[in-house]
Each structure stands twice: as structure tokens, then as C-alpha cells.
Amino acid sequence: MNKLGKINSLLMVGLWLSLSACYTSKIYVVRHAERLDQSADTPLSSAGLQRAQALADSLKNKNIDRIFGTKYQRNRQTAQVLCDVTGKGYEVYEPHPTEVIVKTVEKIGKQNVVIVGHSDTVLEIVKGFGVTPTKAKIESSDYDNLFVITVKKGVGGSRKTLEEKTYGAQTLP
User: Fold this and answer.
1) Among 6, 27, 74, 100, which residue is least crowded by beta carbons within 10 Å?
2) Are 44 and 74 in contact (CB under 8 A)?
3) Which domain of life is it from (predicted)?
């Protein structure tokens, strides 16, 4: 192979490596669904079980690769229907500090991820990905938020955008 052929081959390999590093992924952040009571490890109420089904219905065709939640029953039950529908396991993370789950998901890259958090961690998690939600606080009666962070990584760097949605029946105050 002549010198020009080698240069072209190296350029093609470099282009392939650059393009293979490009991707778009989504990170879905939600609070656990409605709790049965205020006990420390409460299960979901019947409304919460319905919301868990609504979450699974909303995300079942989104090519979810990983599902994270805390050790609490309400988080596990919120994610369980989605785990069943997607065939993905439930991965436990510690709710504090929120930087740990953010760093874990950032290392994953190239995958669509669901994080089930708590009223006092969801917004911190969203902000940890470098986007700014319009909400200043998740109220104790607020269960229907779905934060969708889109990560587009290209040759020139990465860009993150935030879409704020709701899912399931609206929670009454």
C-alpha cells in the first residue's frame, strides 16, 4: 500500500472511531408513585400501583436499557411493572449523595436509563446532569413528573436538553 493509501486508511479509521462515539440517549427521572402511608418503607397505595402501570405504559417502547431506584419498597414497586415489561433488572442506588447516581449514569453513556427517586432528590438528580428544571420543589403530593434528559454526543462534544412531562392521572392536592 502506498503512502496515500495508508493515509486514507488512517483517516477512515479515525472517522469510524469518531462516528462510533456519537450517540443519543435518554435519561428518565421520576419520583416514586403514591405512597400508602408516611412510614419509612411504605409500599405504594392503589393509586401508586396505577401510576406504576402508567409509567410502564409511557416508557415501554423507549428502548430502556437500565432501571435504577433506591432500596425502598415504593421505589421498587414504581419500577417493577417497567422491569417486567422490558425484561430489565432493578438496580439499587443510595439516594444520597445524588452525585453518585449521576456519575454512574454518565459513565454508562449510550443507554436509555430510568431513575426512580424521591421528592427531595429528583430535582437534584436532574440538575446534576447539567440541565435546569422549571420546578423549584417537588411537593409531597406531586407524583406525576417525568423529566426527560436527552444527551446527544457528537464529534464536536455533547449537548443535553430537558423536557418536562407528566404521566398518569393528575394527583389531587
Assistant:
1) 6
2) yes
3) Bacteria
